[in-house]
Amino acid sequence: MARENTCQFAILGMLCREPMSGYGLRQTIERTVGHFWQESYGNLYPTLERMEAEGLVALDREEHSPGGRVRKVYRVTADGRRGLSEWLRRPVVPHVERNELLLKLFFGARVGPEDSLAHVERSRAEAEGLLATLRLIDEDVRHSREGHPELPYSHLSIRAGLLGLEAHLRWCDEAQETLQRLAHAKDSKKKKKGEVG
User: Fold this and answer.
1) Residue 180: is it exposed, middle or buried by C-beta count within 10 angstroms (0-12/13-18/19+)?
2) Which of 4, 149, 168, 191 fits a 20 to 30 Å CA distance from 176?
3) Does the pTM exceed 0.85?
4) Each residue of 70-82: pLDDT tens digit?
């Protein structure tokens, strides 16, 4: 399924919760599902306009900001709700992850362990930051939506993110250990060559 079409369903799902502007959608997506799904402004607004033309969403109201800007707030239509329900029942389209870190590590012997180690250390730092953020999101969602029928479903996606990041950090530990060993072996060979020479 095309990325734009999937963007459409992310929008429909959010608008089923409450009417929102494009800006509100972007903020809510970042705050709730941002650890596994992101949308750019460049994709969001044209998709919203197309969906309005197709009758999947409708203008709910216009809000005027103090600066004089007009913000359009959209709501989902009955056709939009039907479309979302149909999409939710369809099988998930298989996705092959493109992971630049793993690709660079696969070819890492061409540059040596130091560069690969630096990549892993950066990835570890990023994962630690994301994990801390996701733990805060998890806590906020559990408290703010306690007893809400959507909570178990939201929590499943958050748990996938938490467990995935924890597993990534364990892998980073293993990768760092291996690469440090390789770097140490490389340094030992250099020293031995220097002694012989």
Assistant:
1) middle
2) 191
3) no
4) 899 999 999 999 9
